[in-house]
Design brief:
4 domains, globular, 25 strands, seven-stranded mixed beta sheet, alpha+beta, Trna Endonuclease, Chain: A, domain 1, 527 residues
Length: 527
């Protein structure tokens, strides 16, 4: 197939699979909800460029085949002689619905055997684990859940199988805490539900261990186990260990030096979109945004087929992007005009460009005046999308700031309802605490010239007031008292300016919950 026909086939397929995934070597390397791509057929080659906050790849497409609703590409990487397969699937979970249900029932039956083996003399409530959906309680069929009983003691159990996504595994703690709370509400005065035992696949517990290390163990006994479905072995993970965390900080790029390096590209874009925001992504990458919507990037990378560095501007949104050339410069101007007409406060709310990436819009407003969230925060030194790598993922801390007294503050933002807001914020807070205790932020160029307090960071969670998930309060009650957190509910008209309409804090919430626990007469003895 000719390169231009290949490029057209790939482009047409990608335009229809915004919720899909890119799979290479049996691993999902890109989620198309968040990844971006560009396709070119220059120099007699069809080149597919994919990038996200986690990785950046370029593949030469040799051939394409549409089969079973997937686009299967024969591709070559740079300096690779032999092609291999890259699959663009319409769904990251490629199992049929019936196959998913069967696998989840099979896992529940397997976990039941493990529980009876590990807890002789205990019985399962209703004799089995549940895998049904419960929208009222926010329970998903992904997780097998149940209640183990022995006399007046009980233990909430929740497990997730090895065929589920890594995101589902990481989310298990949120649903585990909600299940624990639901069991306690159902059993007042009859049974003491002592805690939660969480089962996850082998070698997937890192994120959960990090989060569980910072929960309040006076409220519940919390146990995390890795389960090997092959040999049916179970290993309990020590969540009380606050030691080494598999994370590393990325050096803060010098904004003045990077902007000087990209001066020509900046001038070219600002001439067309004067109100655009320039955001340094890395020493070789600069983002241009309008109210948080990235519409162009300037970057330096190796020219195809060589090690020479070249600077280029890529423009576009919603995944598809094009390289700016003298020939398509009028197209860029027309595109920029469309973005400016749509992406402003009084724009048409039905326009996809107005509705797109609301979290980034919210973030752009917080960055301009972080003190609108909390008067203690210093607007002079604020960092957005701070990357902290681990072996399994790349965490992007929404906003990292400090108070006027030099205390670090982690800010997690949501523009829409998100049940995982508390534990995502906790995850970033724990990483920041770990790096701060080792003095790494200033070593890596953050908060230069500022004396930072040795105190643990503050944690600020913020979302529009009517879009705070009802389960958020429940999860926050299980946070360690050592974490000074704040939940800020924002005025729903936040695009007009950040205004906090309600605020909840750790001190009030923890005291109230602990009092309730003492009144209930619960005790938290060994399982």
């Amino acid at each position: 197939m000719m390169p231009d026909l290949l490029a057209r086939a790939v482009q047409e397929f990608l335009a229809e699979v915004r919720g899909g995934a890119v799979i290479e070597n049996a691993e999902v390397i890109f989620d198309l909800e968040s990844a971006q791509y560009s396709i070119s057929s220059e120099r007699g080659k069809c080149l597919l460029h994919l990038w996200s906050g986690e990785r950046n790849v370029v593949r030469q497409v040799m051939d394409a085949e549409l089969k079973n609703g997937e686009l299967r590409l024969s591709v070559r990487g740079f300096a690779q002689a032999r092609p291999h397969q890259l699959v663009i699937a319409k769904n990251s979970d490629r199992r049929a619905p019936a196959a998913k249900r069967a696998a989840r029932i099979q896992y529940a039956n397997f976990l039941e055997r493990i529980l009876y083996r590990e807890f002789p003399g205990w019985t399962l409530d209703r004799q089995k684990l549940a895998t049904s959906m419960d929208l009222e309680k926010s329970f998903s069929p992904i997780y097998a859940r149940g209640l183990l009983r022995k006399g007046r003691r009980a233990l909430a159990v929740l497990g997730v199988g090895g065929q589920e996504s890594r995101g589902s595994v990481d989310a298990a703690l949120t649903f585990g805490l909600l299940w624990l709370e639901a069991c306690r509400e159902r059993e007042p005065g009859r049974t003491v539900v002592q805690g939660l035992r969480l089962y996850v696949p082998r070698r997937t517990s890192d994120t959960l261990r990090l989060r569980m290390a910072h929960l309040n163990r006076n409220l519940a006994q919390l146990q995390l186990c890795e389960l090997d479905e092959g040999d049916e072995s179970s290993t309990e993970i020590d969540c009380a260990d606050h030691g080494n965390i598999d994370t590393r900080l990325v050096r803060c790029a010098d904004p003045a030096r990077i902007q000087a390096q990209f001066q020509d590209s900046i001038q070219k874009v600002l001439t067309v979109v004067p109100r655009s925001e320039t955001v340094v992504l890395s020493p070789a990458q600069l983002s241009f945004r309008l109210h948080g919507l990235e519409f162009a990037q300037a970057r330096r990378q190796a020219a195809p087929g060589s090690f020479n560095m070249e600077e280029e501007i890529i423009f576009g949104v919603a995944g598809f992007c094009s390289r700016l050339t003298p020939e398509n410069e009028p197209v860029f101007h027309d595109f920029a005009k469309v973005v400016m007409q749509a992406r402003h406060l009084r724009g048409d709310r039905r326009d996809p460009l107005w509705r797109m990436y609301p979290e980034r819009w919210l973030e752009s407003l917080v960055i301009k005046d972080v003190s609108a969230l909390d008067l203690r925060l210093d607007p002079a030194q604020v960092y957005s999308q701070v990357p902290a790598f681990s072996a399994s993922d790349r965490a992007m801390i929404d906003v990292l700031a400090c108070t006027r007294a030099g205390r670090l503050a982690v800010i997690e933002l949501k523009a829409d309802e998100d049940i995982h807001l508390p534990l995502q914020g906790l995850d970033y807070w724990a990483r920041v605490l770990w790096h701060h205790q080792r003095g790494e932020f200033q070593q890596y160029g953050y908060f230069s010239g500022r004396e930072l307090s040795s105190a643990a960071p503050l944690l600020c969670l913020a979302a529009p007031s009517l879009h705070v998930h009802p389960a958020v309060d429940t999860v926050l009650r299980y946070f360690s008292p050592a974490i000074e957190w704040t939940l800020a509910g924002l005025d729903e008209r936040w695009r007009e300016g950040i205004r906090v309409v309600f605020r909840k804090s750790a001190e009030v919430n923890h005291k109230g919950h602990e009092g309730t626990q003492r009144k209930s007469g619960d005790s938290f003895g060994a399982f």
